[in-house]
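Deliverable D5.2: sample structural annotation.
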Amino acid sequence: MKMSNHRLLAASLIAVALTLGACAERRASLSDGATGTFKYPSPTSYWRGDQVDPIGTLTMPEGVEGKVPVMLILHGSGGQGYRDWTWSAFLNELGVATFRINYYQPRGLVPPIGPGGPTPIQDVQGALPFLATHPQIDAERMGIMGFSRGGSVTLGTMRLRPYPTGDITPKLYVGLYPGCMRVNVDRQTTDEKVLIIVGTSDTLSYPEACVDLGQQAEKLGKNFEIVVIDGATHGFDGNKRGAVRFGGATYHLKPDQAHTEIAREAVKRAAYEAFGLAHASD
């Protein structure tokens, strides 16, 4: 069976990711149109009392002229890997640039990390104005996406304030199996599009909590969409299968391509809605 473009890209990126992160150039701006892996300034990003420069990898869609939207991608507790790269390639195919943030490496952390790991909303605050300096990035069409712990970080950014973000307001928030039980929605929560995807067989990110969160949002007139996939487990869009330990408990991962396709269609619809992409009926 022929591999799709995003899987081929994922395989090549996995081979070089650690090397790129280790030698990432620190840059204050992308005004020259550069792409690749960079350390970027984020004045509010700290770890154990020390300021850190987060690391992110910018990938642009091919064959697209003019300014494009961008999605920031936040990895889960297991660090960067298959999910980050396959979703990046999928979004690139839609005409969306991606910026994959590695919030472990700058803090000297080696995955997997348990419940005590960072949830650095500050890294997102620094990334938004940094990306806005790129001549092909549309600062009016930025979004945030994360998996598991990264999904929780994404939901935590729904109350970002303009000053630390360079007056940039993200237009789309996507959380795949985040910790919905630790999030509340109120009138200060974003009015932009929020998409949460979780499975009925996920015993780590409780689907009931995500449904409850969506009901809170509906009462306040917020633009939330909760997609609950029947039978999907935690990490259904990954490539790791079997039992994993987290927080003293055991959870089971079962990757499923059919569940992944459901999630991709939901993200595609949300991206069309939030970013005003052409050919929304494709």
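Annotation notes: Residues 61 and 92 are 4 Å apart (CA to CA). The longest helix spans residues 257-275.
The annotation will be released with the project's public dataset once the embargo ends.
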